């Protein structure tokens, strides 16, 4: 407890006055596409991101905090389904992509370079070739060692013709990609089901209404696929979706309007065409890559067999932006609670104002929360910018979207002190005593 | 407690039989340089890394676990000195490097590419230009907002002429780079001291004997610098070092043998020339970059002033390999205890052997540790490969270097059951009862 107290008093006391949060506005003459994208604009205004070049972005401290929480959620769920974390280099020898045939298939979206010895590399947009080459490198792989499930969370590269919408469609972005190797099709299908369930859990933890749609297999190859969409008018995919039974199909995969009744036999189901932001996908790849790279294993009879593969992606930075896109108003960011950069922002009184004698109370409250609700200590922020009015700072905090804003104002100085507590998700405001406030904070889930 | 128990019984029970840990040997005809590098060979043999191309490596699950722990140590210490975490893209517009003049200075080690619109990019080996451009983007920066300390832990790229020694000299590697902006030279010097102290703390937590040497400023520019070295014959830097007073200087910065007495006045000090692996550096940059990119702020009198900058690097993947290089024997990896991939490896009896009835005891012990020492649950491994002898598996565990190996063997079946406990760091072995073993485990520090 003393330690926590000490931490609060020194380096761990997160103060808004010290936070690097530069606000940027879209440059004049910005494309209409960028201006109409709410998440892009809000993330720039709130100092979460800054454009580095078209389609590449600096992630600033508040965005990094949310991102690292999101990564924790994903890591936990990947490991629950047996995923083991690795990291493959961004620079991939082009020879691997020539072997698979994708070097030419992928077209100009593949970023290529030559090293000083004129050897060709590409910057991996995805790593089927690289990971299959690793597994193929094991010459005596027994069926007992399967399934193998390897995932990474690394920067991927795709030279979009028209990068736009901030982190929603960038050229360098963070992606989680899982690759699985099973000893037969039934095993691969079981793995597929378990990973799709893990994806459902991730979006459930984030409290995001995910739509799992039958997808096209596209250039990646393979026999079946699902896409995971967040419905939004900014989305660039078109999905037939039934809001009643939840069945969904990517428009690309069907001719005309599909009927969900065929699949689920629910009366009153109707499919409507919606726009979706694709934040995840799952592919059953079969043996396309294991055959090319000779990724085989020895079965029970000692005979070599090709591994049945699957690949599963989540756009990590895209989820961050897409969540903001679907949850926020035009003026204020709203986060999935669990990944908000900070859970609570305490606003101190204005210097020189009527409540100035309550300034020290804000510091005390901060320390009391650290002492009595230690699990919240790292998620607590103090807006100590005393030269600004309380109103202005509450507006700032609501703009960034901290789930709880606690104002130390006039009523904190009364005989029966009360703090104004604003729940930004519900929009409700109430006045709580310190004891009630601490009890409320006990209930906040943090990662 | 029940939850922890449940976790142990299912997905969180880490079993060696399920771990992806493919052993690789150096290909025939490997360069002498690679063969003589202990850490490179050991990391390949133990299934920690696999080469993807010359100078680029796949980090496999055990290496990733150690790496993520190392990142935690670094994050904590960077945040203690006020560092705020960001992430800048790997793709950096070449125009920024042309502005600073480093595009040509850096030479062929700079990896360059063109996007589909023929715009030039380089893959950042370091990000002075990019970060200064961000700060320069703020047009009304007040002196009150300084110092600004921004760091990232991201992949960096350097096209080494002769990449070698595994993770010690690669072409794509993980680096922590901190950039600081102070309002005057005194502030910058104070920041410099605090970051060097943070570096000392990091190596102290890792229990690595770091040598802080006066360094050359080199191509990066600036007025003063220190390098942080781990002394090793594989090291490619030459450092004059006094083992008595600790004073050290990079050979490049002096003519002839320097005297440490001049600096510290300790009798009996003598400088000897040693080889060092540079794992960190600190540079006081002055206004070289802030001037070029117009990164200024308004001082107390409202006048624009250039920020005094510093930059501070740590080779994260290099620290991992260098630690193994200096701590390991030729045959067995030894880790800084706090970042070992797992703290404890429990070895179960052989199937069909004399102690086979103790197999279930190994599982029970695993679960008991999870229940009674929950902080260790995620750091516990069970070597359940019952088809192998205990001896072979103990050898494997010692090879990977888990700090504690617990053997459930013959004596676990006696009336007064005992477990063989091997401390790989000290080489000592003792037999402990379950109560004593659990007490011992209570004392293990984990991140």
TrEMBL record, chains A, B:
Q: Which cell locations does it reside in?
A: Mitochondrion matrix
Enzyme's top EC category: ligase
Residues covered by the Aminoacyl-transfer RNA synthetases class-II family profile domain? 50-336
Q: What is its main location?
A: mitochondrion
InterPro entries reported in the protein's UniProt record: aa-tRNA-synt_IIb, aa-tRNA-synth_II, aa-tRNA-synth_II/BPL/LPL, Anticodon-bd, Anticodon-bd_dom_sf, Pro-tRNA-ligase_IIa, Pro-tRNA_synthetase, ProRS_core_prok
Q: Name one GO molecular function term.
A: ATP binding
Q: What Pfam families does this protein map onto?
A: HGTP_anticodon, tRNA-synt_2b
Which keywords has UniProt assigned to this entry? Aminoacyl-tRNA synthetase, ATP-binding, Ligase, Mitochondrion, Nucleotide-binding, Protein biosynthesis, Transit peptide
Q: Which reaction does it catalyse?
A: tRNA(Pro) + L-proline + ATP = L-prolyl-tRNA(Pro) + AMP + diphosphate
The answer to keyword ATP-binding applying to this record is yes
Q: Which GO terms describe its cellular component?
A: mitochondrial matrix; mitochondrion
A GO biological process this protein is involved in? prolyl-tRNA aminoacylation
The record's EC number reads: 6.1.1.15
Briefly state the protein's biological role.
Answer: Mitochondrial aminoacyl-tRNA synthetase that catalyzes the specific attachment of the proline amino acid (aa) to the homologous transfer RNA (tRNA), further participating in protein synthesis. The reaction occurs in a two steps: proline is first activated by ATP to form Pro-AMP and then transferred to the acceptor end of tRNA(Pro).
- Protein's name in the database: Probable proline--tRNA ligase, mitochondrial
State the organism of origin. Answer: Strongylocentrotus purpuratus
